[in-house]
Amino acid sequence: MRRLIPVISFLILASTAFWGILQYAKIQEDLKKQTSVKAQTIKICTDLQSNILDEIGKEFYAETGFQIEIIRMTAEQLGSNGHQGIGEADIFLTSQTNLEELKKNKALRSYSSESTDTALEQFKDFEGTWTGIWLDPIVFVVNKEFAARHSLLNYNWNNIMTSPQIRLSMTDFIAADMAEDLLLSMAEHFGITEALYLLSEGNSHIVQYGKYLSTPSRMAGMGKCDIGISSYNEAMRAQKENLPLQIMYPTDGTSWYLYGIGLSADSKEPELGQKLMNWLLTPTHYKKVMQDNGCYFIYVNDSTLPADTNGNPLNYWELEKKYVDEGKKILLNEWIEQVRFRRIS
């Protein structure tokens, strides 16, 4: 029996060592798997030039372990299939106009989920090829002194555009895509004749057409105009600079510029893009990051926007935004000739 004790002890030690080796191997395999998951990268193709996606990417990585690789292109490249030379993207993030072009070029694949389903119909493609995530509506940015003197003013489009005593500022329609989008939206909502009439009436008391989207809200805050016709994002930025202004929502509704996302038809791992898409459609994940970096969009899947100073909610025009290039050109030329540089005989 005594002779067996060393043998038994050896077997116990050997078994313990073998079990330890197996456990170590299992731990290493688990770590390898985790590292592999964390190393996975989602390629997002966009024409947004700000660094906000870099900051969002950090938050996404911290929550999910997936990295984001940002491929930046121009709007023209996106619209002309220029993205095909960059390799395989998993997801596109760009304006509604560019997403429609990508759809036309069969660069997107359909996708729906609980997150996409809660987006309102007018803010997504009916075939599911893209879904809106961020809205930037047009608002009236009012100088505080003017607002105090005209406390009973109804801030609707007709009153603002046809009252010659109100000094206005707006971004020139030829200066930026978002500014041009307002012209197109007004033509769709009011009709071309009525839209050009309102713009012509407003032209007589516009103190300055801005070259930048930020100009109208800043001019209102500095008292250089009474009301700036501005995007909500730029209005909020000016307000955060403590400029004396108030943001008023047009009481008869307003235009909006939309940024959205769509899954790439060329992605070999579409589930990666789906993961990011659903995450972006849940703004509680990253809303604070956006605001901390000076981005104040309204989120398609967020209902927390408060009423304006007068207690009016933000209402959006029902728009399809199916604008063709030739029609855009004709309308822009009509505005230039009949409004912007109209000759008074």
UniProtKB/TrEMBL annotation:
GO CC entries: outer membrane-bounded periplasmic space
Pfam families registered for this protein in UniProt: SBP_bac_11
GO molecular-function annotation terms? thiamine binding; thiamine pyrophosphate binding
Name-wise, this protein is: ABC transporter, solute-binding protein
**Does the entry feature the keyword Signal, yes or no?**
yes
A biological-process GO annotation: thiamine transport
Q: Alphabetically list the UniProt keywords.
A: Signal
Asked whether the UniProt record includes Oxidoreductase among its keywords, one would answer no
Source organism phylogeny = Bacteria, Bacillati, Bacillota, Negativicutes, Veillonellales
